[in-house]
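ARCHIVE CARD
SHELF: 3
SLOT: left
DATA:
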Amino acid sequence: MNETTVTVVGNVATTPVYRELPSGPVARFRLAVTARHFDAVKNTWNDGHTNFFTVWARRTLGANVQASLAVDEPVIVQGRLKVRDEERGGQHWTSADIDAQTIGHDLSRGTAAFRRVLKGDGSLTQAASAREQPESEPVG
């Protein structure tokens, strides 16, 4: 009930990995989020520290992530933040995961074409399929 929900804007850092599990489809990818600040003296934007999150997308969202996202694309991710501390090979690791509820392209940095999928089978609707077919030009 008291989970930490976050909205993060960044770039897809790794190719989404998609798997069919007994519990349903899941996709994961790394999200890079770099803070930027404006230096008024130099009149330039400067990059700050980059944070990396592992984003987990389950069920239909996972299938859509696999079909829609590629490395370096700007995205907005909203979901539950989970920070994990663990020991691996004698070293201490801390990781931040986001269990995504929604993911979309950041349209302030580019354009996207939405394609609706039918519930259950993941195939495109007829309207979306028709949009993807190039219209033939009249000959003559």
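SLOT: right
DATA:
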Amino acid sequence: MAKTSKIVKALRAPKYPVQQHNRCLKCGRPRAYMRQFGICRICFRELALQGNIPGVRKSSW
């Protein structure tokens, strides 16, 4: 989990547009962000396994 101060800082409007950084909407993680879903890979995996993301299915072979 990201520190509360980092999440609050990320929610503020940036002084310049280039300073914006994508963060996971669920946990605030800045890395491994999936733009299509707006969450990080860890949260994506959890939600996909629970079946909460429509059209996504766990693959196995």
